[in-house]
Amino acid sequence: MNAAQNEIQGISAVERALAAAGIVAGTTGAYMVWYFDPAQVNFLPVCPLYAFTGFACPGCGLTRGFHALFHGDLTTALDYNALIPLFAIIWGFFLVSMLSVAVRGRGIVKQAYLPKGMIGFLILLLVFGVVRNIPFYPFTLLYP
Q: Which of 13, 34, 65, 78 maximizes the CB count within 10 A of its CB?
């Protein structure tokens, strides 16, 4: 069977099972972040860049931010990481896409992975990572 026929018939059973496993892993991780307060426990991951250098990466504060977001505290979530709405949209998109692969055998949108969008997202992360580490007001508000 060539690649064109495989595309017409959908995704293999292995890929569907992997998507289902991804859904289980993602929802389990989300449950762990909802249930355990990252500020109170020490088994949730810590940012290695922050631990070694004291600089906050673009993802620093996401675990604490998602914990606050899952408990309905949007202001605190934004205080931990101002990009949390963007990360929540991406997380939701990936979960819905994996659900679509597991159930229907095909993803929802193929244009979501265009190089221009990915490069733009990486540039946004790079700029945010630099700006949040500038030690002057108002940039200090972005530090987690």
A: 65
* CB crowding 11-48: b at 16 or more within 10 Å, else e: beeeebeebeebbeeeeeeeeebeeeebeeeeebeebe
Give me the mean pLDDT over the 40-68 stretch. 91
What one-letter code names the amino acid at 59? G
**pTM, to two decimals:** 0.82
Domain residue limits at 75: 3-142
- Number of domains within the chain: 1
CB 39 within 8 A of CB 71: no
Mean pLDDT of 42-58: 89
